[in-house]
Amino acid sequence: MDETTIVILTAMNLEYRAVRAQLSGITAQTHPMGTRFEVGHLNGCRVALALTGKGNQSAAVLTERATAEFAPAAVIFVGVAGALQSHLGLGDVVVATHVYAY
Q1: Where are the alpha helices (DSSP H) in the chain?
Q2: Which end of the chain is more exposed for a tag (fewer CB within 10 A), N or C?
Q3: Cα–Cα distance for residue pair 51/36, rounded to 1 Å
Q4: 10 close to 3: Cβ distance less than 8 angstroms
Q5: What whole-number distance in Å separates Cα of residue 90 and Cα of residue 70?
Q6: Are the C-beta atoms of 53 and 9 separated by less than 8 Å?
């Protein structure tokens, strides 16, 4: 049976290191165009992790490469953010209801 693969993308090194610290059994896997993914396991799922850097274009390219390479069950973009909503506190998880400019 094939393992479920989840792709996690981050824009900043801080975010990348935080996700990487949660993975076990990490190995490197390189896409034919040169993009390097680190692949490990988290809570029974295979996770492919990559750093996109800033901007929509690089995130779009890496997302396309990740989906071609891993055929993941989900692609998740993980990062830190600020908010202007007074009901949000440090450590709150915020999930988008809309995606713009993908």
Answers
A1: 13-20, 56-70
A2: N
A3: 9
A4: no
A5: 33
A6: no
Residue 66 Cα to chain centre, angstroms: 10
Confidence of residue 1 (pLDDT cuts 50, 70, 90): very low
Q: Between β-strands 36-42 and 24-30, what pairing exists: parallel, antiparallel or unpaired?
A: antiparallel
Q: Is 36 exposed, middle or buried (0-12, 13-18, 19+ CB in 10 A)?
A: exposed
The answer to whether residues 10 and 19 touch, using CB atoms and an 8 Å cutoff, is yes
Backbone angles phi, psi at 67, to 5 degrees: -70, -35
Tokens of 58: 């690089």
Q: How far apart are CA 81 and CA 94, in angstroms?
A: 9
For residue 31, which amino acid is it? H
Contact (Cβ atoms closer than 8 angstroms) between residue 28 and residue 36: yes
Lowest mean pLDDT among 2-6, 64-68, 69-73: 2-6
